[in-house]
Amino acid sequence: MIPIYFKNGAVNRLYHLLLNVKPRQRSKVEYLKNIRAINKWCLKNISVRGKKYSFPDVIKADYDEIVEIANVYNSRRTKIPKKYKKFIIETLYKQRFPRQEFVEELQITVCPYCNRNFVNSTYKRTMCDLDHFYDKETYPILAVSFHNLVPVCHACNHAKASKSISYSPHNMKFNTDDLLSFDFFIDGMDFLSDNQQIGIEIDCGREFATNVRELKLREVYQIHSDIVQECIKKAIMFNPKYMTDLFNTYNGLFESEEELYRIVFGNYMEESFYGKRPLSKLTKDVLSKLLIEIYGFNME
Ligand SMILES: [Zn+2]
Q1: Percent of the chain scored above 90 by pLDDT?
Q2: How far is the CA of 163 from the centre of ligand 1 (A)?
Q3: Contact 232, 187 (CB under 8 A)
Q4: What is the pLDDT of residue 162?
Q5: pLDDT per residue over 129-165, tens digit each?
């Protein structure tokens, strides 16, 4: 639900890390032979609107090209020979893929599939899973393509497995707010003391519907009804007038009113920062609705 972006020049840097590492002398000949053979296979079999794709082109392809390559591969009867499939998955992906640098180049801190769990990389170790948006068993030629890989939390990776979902965070066409919005409903009189009486709903269009279903987002978000309960209480305490008073009283303490909202409500309110902290989209949507319903105050 949160778009992800590579830093400038990242794709080329990652490509060199992946392919230009010198293999041990003994396996070098075999290694180069495999790369050449896969390259030849790609040039012969992968063509999108007149452009022939080499193996490096497939690895560096952007998201739109990945979709087209996947369609071409899927429609072809001839699949890549098993020994090359094994080489791409077992050698290139499992042994050589620069996981840590990949996560760092994307500057990700929270799982872009669910916006619930932190994902990050530490020295020599990535604290997340890498999901193949197009799964590597069915689409082995995309197994090391950077725009086909998404750093995700273990829960999302486990839920998705090899299933296909419609929205990839590499897809630049959609912003988070276009894809979905959270809402809540009250299911009992004692919701202020019992958060089990608050339910969370996800409204989304066709583009995000399979993500919600396959990643079980409706189900997993229910445990966050305590966050909604806190938002309700805080929205009552910190009404818009009080917030303006706080901003003026502590003149110069807050960079902006947005920062004051972040500190009071514990999360980022701006769409471009949703990826920085877990549950930011939930907090923002719930709070926006509460402020409109209680005070007629529009945060936008
Ligand atoms: Zn996740």
Answers
A1: 85
A2: 15
A3: no
A4: 87
A5: 999 999 999 999 999 999 999 999 999 999 999 899 9
Structure confidence at residue 273 (pLDDT): 93
Distance (Å, whole) CA 96 – CA 88: 10
- Between the CA of 198 and the centroid of ligand 1 the distance, in Å, is 22
How many CA atoms lie within 13 Å of 154's alpha carbon, on the beta-carbon side? 2
Residue 115 C-alpha to ligand 1 middle, in angstroms?
Answer: 6
Please give the distance, rounded to the nearest whole angstrom, from the Cα atom of residue 168 to the centre of ligand 1. Answer: 13
| Mean pLDDT estimate for the chain | 93
DSSP secondary structure of 193-255 = T-GGGEEEEEEE-HHHHHHHHHTTHHHHHGGGHHHHHHHHHHHHHS-HHHHHHHHHHTTTTSS
pLDDT score recorded for residue 22: 64
Cα 202 to middle of ligand 1, angstroms: 16
Q: How far is the CA of 37 from the centre of ligand 1 (A)?
A: 37
CA of 145 to the centre of ligand 1 (A): 21
Tens digit of pLDDT for each residue in 4-61? 999 999 999 999 999 875 656 667 888 889 999 999 999 999 999 999 999 999 999 9
Distance 219 CA to ligand 1 centre (A): 13
Distance 165 CA to ligand 1 centre (A): 14
Q: Could you tell me the distance, in angstroms and rounded to a whole number, from the CA of residue 155 to the centre of ligand 1?
A: 6
CA of 296 to the centre of ligand 1 (A): 34
Bridge-based pairing state of the strands 129-132 and 149-152: antiparallel
CA of 97 to the centre of ligand 1 (A): 21
Distances (CA, A) of 162 to 103, 139, 223: 21, 11, 26
In whole angstroms, give the CA distance from residue 15 to residue 241: 53
The per-residue pLDDT for range 238-262, each reduced to its tens digit, is 999 999 999 999 999 999 999 999 9
